Amino acid sequence: MEWLEAVVHTTTFGSDLVSDEMMALGAAGCEIVDRADVPDPRQPGVYWELYDPAMIDAMPDDVLVKAWFERGEKERETIDAVRAQLEQLRAQGGADLGTLRLELSGVKDEDWSENWKKYYKPFRIGTHLVVKPTWEAYQPRPEDLIIELDPGMAFGTGTHETTNMCMQLLEKHLKGDMRVMDVGTGSGILAIAAARLGAREVLAIDIDPAAVKVARENIALNHVEDRVRAVEGDLCKSEAMPCDLAVANIVADAIRMLAAPLTRHLAKGGLLICSGIIREREQDVLDAALAAGYAVADRLEKGEWVALALRNEAA
């Protein structure tokens, strides 16, 4: 099958917005190519990985959002809708969204579904966690906690600032034998990380059935089915469990909405680790969290993003 590939030139700040707009217009999938998401082996920090610096240098200066649409009789209508939406974003002004230049081409199934993998290599987050794509070789160190991952079309490769900050906070704060809920699990990476770090029971929840399918596959791949269970649903309307720690790598508005209901499931003194919070929305999240009875226990910041560890002090 052949697909219409729409490539939009934007910025790190604009990439999530453009991706959301493409999905709203009917894209079957999106890929963000951003050199800022790839840990640079020449820079000191929490990362250790196997990237070739030459590969990073070869990545485009612009951030690219690639979206794929079905070809057919509505192709012209789709192209017009994409162009109109980009023009609307330009007209709004304000935020730095880059040029929003559009490139169109035709690609075959195997091209768009596999091409992104060349940018995804094994890498370390924190001290012990190592994320290893299933198709890559890696020689582990004795103390490594390996997470085998094939994200499929689900969000959560570990390279994005929001995901890796959550993993750093999990490594710092998760104590052995804790019960953990992962709200908005995506690929299941945070749920698997919790199990690798010693959690005795993990419930992974996502509203997207495709994400739940991918998460279950990754849970099985990592042989943690005895401790991690992925279910489809909404925390406010479906399955939940008492937990000592919850993690939510979603968006600011969803965290604000879930903070209060989550106190019913989170043990007093338990932690909510949350990210997906753009810096400009941090105070909104804090206002909702403090009103719900949380106190700030820890904070990380990377690029435009913030992650918080909030302690449940509600009675």
Tell me briefly what this model is.
With 315 residues, the chain is of the alpha/beta class. The protein has nine helices and 15 strands. Helix 8 runs parallel beside helix 9.
Gross geometry: globular
- The strand count comes to 15
From the alpha carbons, calculate the radius of gyration and give it in angstroms.
Answer: 20 Å
Share of helix, binned: 25-40%
Topology as a string of helices (H) and strands (E): EHEEHEHEHEEEHEHEHEEHEHEE
**Strand order, biggest sheet?**
11-10-9-12-13-15-14
Q: State the secondary-structure class.
A: alpha/beta
The residue-averaged pLDDT reads 84
Distance between the termini: 57 Å
Major beta sheet summary: 7 strands, mixed
The helix tally amounts to: 9
- Could you tell me the strand content as a percent range? 25-35%
Low-pLDDT stretches: 44-52
Describe the structure.
- This protein has 315 residues and is α/β, with parallel strands linked by helices.
- 31% of the residues lie in helices and 31% in strands.
- The protein has 9 helices and 15 strands.
- The protein has helices spanning 12-24, 53-57, 75-92, 109-114, 161-173, 189-196, 209-221, 252-262, 282-292; strands spanning 2-10, 29-33, 48-49, 63-70, 102-108, 123-125, 129-133, 145-149, 179-183, 201-206, 228-232, 243-249, 266-278, 294-302, 305-312.
- The chain has a 7-stranded mixed beta sheet with strand order 11-10-9-12-13-15-14, sandwiched between helices.
- Helix 7 links the parallel strand 10 (201-206) and strand 11.
- Helix 8 (252-262) packs parallel to helix 9.
- The longest helix has 18 residues, at 75-92.
- The chain is globular, with a radius of gyration of 20 Å.
- The chain starts with a strand and ends with a strand.
